[in-house]
Each structure stands twice: as structure tokens, then as C-alpha cells.
Specification:
By secondary structure, the protein is α/β, with parallel strands linked by helices. It has 13 helices and 15 strands. Helix 5 crosses helix 6. Bound molecules: N-succinyl phenylglycine.
Length: 374
């Protein structure tokens, strides 16, 4: 496969409702799309990738502008340089950019686009390539921090009515035990978990132990990204299984967290770990260690959502992921919308991602485009 050009597209998409976590309130999403214009034996194809970096430095050390700049200045030129020597492959991409330190989300987006192009040319689906063993995946939903307990219960009730099979509540100091207790009192023993996005410290251990009374599936990333030792200490003091998100930035980090008892469960996000191929390696390693994994979400468009459903179809993904319907975040997605059917989302079966951007939607939401020629 030869890459003729790469386009970096920044979109601006309004969220249907504000989404508040321990670190921010978002009312719109600015997806960064990577479009690889590739050809082989005279057949041309567009491969699509989505970078999950947020616009601000609140979730990780990458952000929208850093990702776009690293793609423009380093990663795309590295692909052009590499293909002067030998054919470019998604499998070889990570190695070919290893010398460019960090910037996993930027790398993941370009690798995803290369993989999509390859698979479309080969007529192979993402699910098939990654090793999905099912045709649809159970759909969990992430519920933000609300202004009141009543408002939260209204949202949770709506999501349960829509068929979501698992509820994840965002928590932070001052909004944790009370909302969990209220949801349990109102809705009984539904599958329920919490996500703190690093908002606590080990000094909060006694308070966090109060959550053990509510039979949660897991508590996600209560402490800092680098706090592997502290998460292991907290895990020994809580009954609720410890799950890591921000800390798991690579296969090595996953192995380290598991061996040190800091992660009984892992949230896998392809963007955070450097791509879908690295995500599969973490899945394999966790499965080997008997550690359940689930697929996290970063408010992706239908492109990222398609790739996430394929990843969540692997056998070690035994817990419902944050793979909700497009309508959970967007009134209009840039692809055909993903819809909830009996609590599940179907894995697109077509070549590559199996979905592609709708031209009108791209037109409507595009903010900025940059084309790099080989
Ligand atoms: O369903 C989704 O796509 C969102 C899932 C979700 O809550 N993601 C969280 C997270 O920390 O995991 C998040 C990511 C990015 C921005 C805000 C929140």
C-alpha cells in the first residue's frame, strides 16, 4: 500500500447535554480525524482514524493541538519517509515511529487510519483483524456529575429505559457515596460502577471504603496516573475491585499494574495505549493473567465507536464497555448512528471500520483541514 496524502481534519460537534467529570465539563467535542489517501495496484481508498485527545490538558498530557502538531511535523512525515524505503503497513507503523517519543493518541489515530485503509483494500473487517468473536457487544453508559441527586436519578432512569446494561457514575470528592446510595435505593442491584478520574488520594481511603457497601462492579482510577503503588495499597483496603484507566498507558504499564496488585480490572482505550494493535496485546496479557478488561470511551464519533465495538468483541472483554449509542452524546454523528438494540451495539461487518463519514456531516462540523502530500 502506498500513501499519497494524509489529511488532518478538526471537527466541532455539540454534545446533546453537558458532560461533567471530576476534571471538566464539556459541552462540545473537537474530534481530530486522520484521513489516509492510499492506493495499491491502482485501487484507491480512504483510511480513517480518530484521535481521542481532548482540547485541554485535563485527561492526559496530550491535547488536540499537540496531537495535530506531532502528526503534522513528525508522524506523517515519518510514514512518507518510511514508504520511500519499503511499503507502509499498520503492523510496522509503531516500530517505524518508536524514535518519536510519547504522543500515543496521535500515533494511535494514524495507525488506525493506516489499518482502516489496509483492511478496506483487503476486504477484511476491523473485528476480523482484531479477533472479535461476537457480532455485537453489550452497551454500558457513562453518567456525568449532575447538579442534584434528583437530576441524576432522572438521567439514570432514562438510560435504563433505553436499555443500557451497565451504569457508570462519575464521582469526585463531595459527589460519591450519596449518588451511589441514591441510585442503589432507587434502581436496586443494577450493574453499577464508579469512575473518579484520579480525583482522590490515599488519604481518602477510609471514605472510599464506604463505597464497599454498594456492591459495585469496580472503582475506576481513584488515584493519580502514576500512583501504581498507592492503588495497590488502596486495593488491599477495599472490597470493591480496583480498575485502572489513565495509568495503563502501555503493555508494560499493564503488566506492572497487574503484578503489583494495582489493577484487578483494566479499562482499555486504544488511543491511550498507542493504538488498536497495542490494545489487543494488552487484552491478551490481561487474559493470560485472568484480569477482565472492558473498552473505555472518549466521546468518539462513529469512526472511533466502530473501532471500539470491534475491539470490545474480543473474548477477554467480559465487562460491558463505555460504548454507548451515538445519540448519548451527539444529535448528529458523522457516520450512520450507532443505535442500542436490546442493550447491545452491533459490530460493523464491512471492510475496515465498516462505516465512513457522511459528507454532509463532515461539511457541517469541519473546523479546520490540513493536507500533507507524500
Ligand atoms: O462513553 C464515552 O465515550 C465516554 C466514557 C467516559 O466517561 N469517558 C471518560 C473517562 O474518563 O473514561 C472521559 C473521557 C474523556 C473526556 C471526558 C470523560
Amino acid at each position: 500500500m502506498r500513501v499519497r496524502a494524509v489529511e488532518l481534519l478538526t471537527l466541532r460537534m455539540p454534545l446533546v447535554t453537558p458532560f461533567t467529570t471530576s476534571f471538566s465539563t464539556q459541552t462540545e467535542r473537537f474530534p481530530l480525524l486522520v484521513r489516509v489517501l492510499a492506493e495499491t495496484d491502482g485501487r484507491e481508498v480512504d483510511g480513517w482514524g480518530e484521535c481521542v485527545a481532548l482540547t485541554d490538558l485535563v485527561y492526559s498530557s496530550e491535547y488536540l493541538d499537540s496531537a495535530r502538531e506531532v502528526l503534522r511535523r513528525y508522524l506523517v512525515p515519518a510514514v512518507f519517509a518510511a514508504q520511500a524505503r519499503e511499503a507502509v503497513t499498520a503492523d510496522g507503523f509503531a516500530e517505524s515511529v518508536r524514535h518519536i517519543l510519547g504522543h500515543r493518541m496521535a500515533k494511535a489515530a494514524l495507525e488506525m487510519a493506516l489499518l482502516d485503509a489496509e483492511l478496506r483494500l483487503a476486504g477484511v473487517s476491523f473485528g476480523e483483524r482484531l479477533g472479535a468473536t461476537t457480532a455485537s457487544v453489550p452497551s454500558g453508559v457513562s453518567v456525568g456529575i449532575h447538579d442534584s441527586i434528583d437530576a441524576l436519578l432522572g438521567s439514570v432512569g432514562d438510560y435504563l429505559d433505553q436499555g443500557y446494561v451497565r451504569i457508570k457514575l462519575k464521582i469526585r470528592p463531595g459527589w460519591d457515596v450519596e449518588p451511589v446510595r441514591a441510585v442503589r435505593d432507587r434502581f436496586g442491584d443494577i450493574p453499577l460502577q464508579v469512575d473518579a478520574n484520579t480525583a482522590y488520594t490515599l488519604a481518602d481511603a477510609e471514605h472510599l471504603r464506604l463505597l464497599d457497601a454498594y456492591d459495585l462492579l469496580l472503582i475506576e482510577q481513584p488515584l493519580g496516573e502514576d500512583d501504581i503503588r498507592e492503588h495497590a495499597l488502596l486495593a488491599r483496603r477495599m472490597r470493591t475491585p480496583m480498575c485502572l484507566d489513565e495509568s495503563i498507558v502501555s503493555t508494560d504499564a499493564a503488566r506492572d499494574a497487574i503484578e503489583r496488585g494495582a489493577a484487578a480490572i483494566i479499562n482499555i482505550k486504544a488511543g491511550r495505549v498507542g493504538g488498536y494493535l497495542a490494545a489487543v496485546r494488552i487484552h491478551d496479557l490481561a487474559r493470560e493473567a485472568g484480569v477482565p478488561v472492558w473498552c473505555g470511551g472518549m466521546l468518539e464519533t462513529g469512526l472511533g465507536r466502530a473501532a471500539n465495538t470491534a475491539l470490545a468483541g474480543l473474548p477477554g472483554f467480559t465487562l460491558p464497555g463505555d460504548i454507548s449509542a451515538s445519540a448519548r452524546f451527539f444529535a448528529q454523528d458523522i457516520t450512520e448512528p450507532f443505535v442500542l438494540q436490546d442493550g447491545r451495539i452491533r459490530i460493523p461487518a464491512g471492510p475496515g471500520l465498516g462505516v465512513e463519514p457522511l459528507p454532509d456531516a463532515l461539511e457541517e462540523f469541519s473546523q479546520h483541514a490540513l493536507t500533507l502530500e507524500a
